[in-house]
Amino acid sequence: MALLQVEKLSIHFGGVKAVQNVSFAIDAGVVYSVIGPNGAGKTTLFNLITGVYQPTAGSIRLDGEAIEGCSPNELAERGVARTFQNLQICMNMSALENVMVGAHLQLDRNPLKAALRWPSLRRRDDALRQEAAQLMNFVGLKDYVEARADSMPYGALKRLEIARALAMKPRLVFLDEPAAGLNPKETLEVDHLVRKMADSGVTVVLVEHDMKMVMNLSDRILVLDYGKKLAEGTGEEIRRNPDVIAAYLGTH
């Protein structure tokens, strides 16, 4: 059974059909990319699956269980995390604290314990700090553990946001343009990180405009055009698809 199964998914905003009758399945442990021209519906598709929008029609199943209608918090508890096109970093916090925010689902929310600072809570806080530091090392940010977020370069902040998503211990991570605005060196670092995530057992769904990165990383690719599914396949199949060439990749 596929980890994620999307069937005939659609959403309409008034008369605008942003996503139309899109179906696909994603197996566990792969890198699955969604590409298409600007306005093709890529981020809208992400928003539908991650609970930001509710679909007009269609179904979304995670491990065979329906999740359409679930809130982002409910999906996080089921192991679904995401990043956004625009950074969602708390700039007045340290880098380590930003990663710890991603582990909020593991925190004991008992207000009495919090008020009394019970030893068990202190031990858990210490463990979360250690886990956050390990995640920063995993994404290549060990030199920024003590840094304030507002002192970090943009490329490091993009990886910090991925570390925060990983702090939720997800099975499925949606990365919305993780290489946007990065230089070639930073893009290569994100490229390596995405593959490292997949190799560790996390399923990655990627929206990205850097076609070299997409073709290098992806096990399968979904192409959207005007909200509709134009094609799906391996990188080589997509590269040779005449409809994709005409609509997106270009003829040169």
Top keywords for this entry?
252 residues, alpha/beta, Rossmann fold, 6-stranded mixed β-sheet, 4-stranded antiparallel β-sheet, 10 strands
Would you mind describing this structure in some detail?
- With 252 residues, this protein is α/β, with parallel strands linked by helices.
- It folds into two domains: 1-79 and 170-252, P-loop containing nucleotide triphosphate hydrolases (Rossmann fold, 3-Layer(aba) Sandwich), CATH 3.40.50; 92-169, no CATH class.
- It is 38% helix and 23% strand.
- The chain is built from ten helices and ten strands.
- The chain has helices spanning 42-49, 72-77, 95-101, 111-116, 119-138, 154-166, 184-199, 211-217, 235-240, 242-249, and strands at 4-13, 16-26, 31-35, 57-62, 65-66, 80-82, 172-176, 203-207, 220-225, 228-233.
- A hairpin with a 2-residue loop joins strand 1 and strand 2 (16-26).
- Helix 5 (119-138) packs across helix 6 (154-166).
- The longest helix has 20 residues, at 119-138.
- The chain is globular, with a radius of gyration of 19 Å.
Task: Produce the secondary structure layout.
Blueprint: E1 4-13, E2 16-26, E3 31-35, H1 42-49, E4 57-62, E5 65-66, H2 72-77, E6 80-82, H3 95-101, H4 111-116, H5 119-138, H6 154-166, E7 172-176, H7 184-199, E8 203-207, H8 211-217, E9 220-225, E10 228-233, H9 235-240, H10 242-249
Parallel strand pairs: 3-8, 3-9, 6-7, 7-8
Antiparallel strand pairs: 1-2, 1-4, 4-5, 9-10
